[in-house]
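Recap for those who missed Tuesday's class. We walked through two folding examples back to back. For each one, the amino acid string is listed first and its predicted structure tokens come directly after. Nothing is annotated here on purpose, so try labeling regions yourself before you check the end of the notes.
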Amino acid sequence: MKLKLSRILSLAFAVAFLAVISSASAFADARSALPGTVNYIEGQVNIGSDTLNADSIGSAMLEPNQTLETGNGKAEILLTPGVFLRVDENSAVRMISPSITNTEVQVDQGRAMVEVAEIHDQNNLRIDTGGVPAQLVKKGLYEFDADRQEILVFDGKAIVQNGDHDVSVGGGKRVELNTGAAELKAHGFDKDDYKQSDLYQWSSLRSSYLAEANVNAASVYYTDNGYYGPGWVGAGWYWSPAFGAYTWVPGDGVFFSPFGFGFFAPPVVFRSQLFVRFGAPFHPGFVGFRPGFVRPFPDRPFLGPRAPVVVTHGPAVVQQRPPEFRRGIVHNSPPAFHGGEAHSAPPAFHGGGSGGGSHGHPMGFHR
């Protein structure tokens, strides 16, 4: 009798374990994202003669020497893990090199914005505008305007290279590229004024959606003990079925985007959701925050420790419900619910938790 019971328990354990493996595999199938993967489109977008639509998201690729063009529409392209290229209306960008260690894109027409939430010393990330390359060397937010021949650095640092003349451009600075190499200089600009542009506002909205998608994707890869679970292979791009797009999941701690939204590693999602469940303050030893409260969803019953939560650098923000965001279409995004405060111990863009970075994990693109 005891032997029979033991066999039943063993079989039940095996079935449960396979169910966990299958759940993780649904997120991490054989198809992977690479630099150049189209992650979101709206309106008129094409690569060469191919018109893109919602079914292209996550599968269409911008190959070397191919150009993505927008008419009355916009597009988001993945570069290295943690780096998003967003293309404005009536614009064109050409892929020069999609390598993870040597990534180069040229803005031929219109405007493009690059959000860099994480970058490594091994990443040679360059955006060319009017034949002038700019290497992005720090986390931050950058705008490239081919029509006006200028580069704006909202936050971060870029090295603009024009022949033998390099110009270091820090946050709050801009460079006019049509002045000639000898006169290439960085000047200040009014960031608040530029933040009112449609491209900036759209990029900020996309960043907030991807932060929610991060929680959705990262929650699959932790166990009930808060450790990395089946299917986890390190920091990189992971597919979020609920949001119909790839999102960035860091390998360790929590990182803040230039717009202030948090991207969590799987164990940090587990711990933060646990605190949300019990209405307790974030603890600095768990997620790198000073004490502060994040309230759960105010308009519906508790859904468990994996309910979506978005934490910003500053006041905590908890969405009332995830937006209807399927196959790249956004419907009726609800207003944010502002809870208490969750202040980050380090400044923006720095990780928290277990040392504050994606340490010891290979970069990759996973689905």
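Example two. Treat it independently of the first, because the proteins are unrelated.
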Amino acid sequence: MAPNLVRYRSPEEDSARWAGFGFREGDIVISARSKSGTTWMQMICALLIFQTPDLPAPLGDLSPWLDWLITPRDTVFERLAAQRHRRFIKTHTPLDGIPLDPGATYIVMARHPLDAAVSLYHQGGNIDRGRVRQLLGQPEPAAPGPARPPLRDWLLAWIDDDPDPREQLDSLPGFLRHLSDAWARRAQPNVLIRHYADFLADLDGQMHRLAESLEITVPGGTWPALVDAASYARMRASATRLLGPPGVLKSPAAFFRRGTSGSGAELLTGAELAHYHARAATMAPRDLLAWLHR
């Protein structure tokens, strides 16, 4: 691990796996916290690169998650080295934890943290924890863990939790650290920050904008099919083909649960929402929060 990089670790992730990765000119690194549009951006990049809705392999093969401990690091490196298309790599690590190569483009996806948290809660029920422990070589717990609280109670606790964001990456401090670091780099020509809500509002326009930033030319007649394939409804209908059969995910289709904005704020009273904003204001710049919460 380079001494100038922050190391981020969780039971399933380790940013130190980036050490020694060989970049190529034109590589794309997609960096986002969980449930912030990572898979959506992977799909959009795949469509722009291959220029067909009929992708040659599941997204996880085309765009490996480099810091995920379930797949051996050498295996991931070998798969990426063998790829001949323009590479697009998934990471949940903030940019201060991965090498920044001048020939690569870094796309950071942002989503309202409350919406991402609600999606994260539902995602927790769709993960086969026993299968994850098996793949990581972890023992089964001696006794069942406590039952998850109802969503609203969980969300209120999530807002108030204050862990080390380097170890609890999906906490509110983890979300805002990730985005604050990217926000500070937004003037760099190879760092692109994109908002989930903008793709919901204008998928066609945002895909055109991204293609221009990535210097990808797509024939005009090809666009409608690509935009349709990137729509939330189409991705949900194609979930098994995109994500593979059930495994770590109990249901690939449930991974694409709702795909909207505003679900987090809907659960909170006015006072609770104000408390969330007060907490967020202690963790991120005001201009970032204004952009993020708009």
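Answers for example two:
Residues 23 and 101 are 7 Å apart (CA to CA).
The chain has one domain: 9-293.
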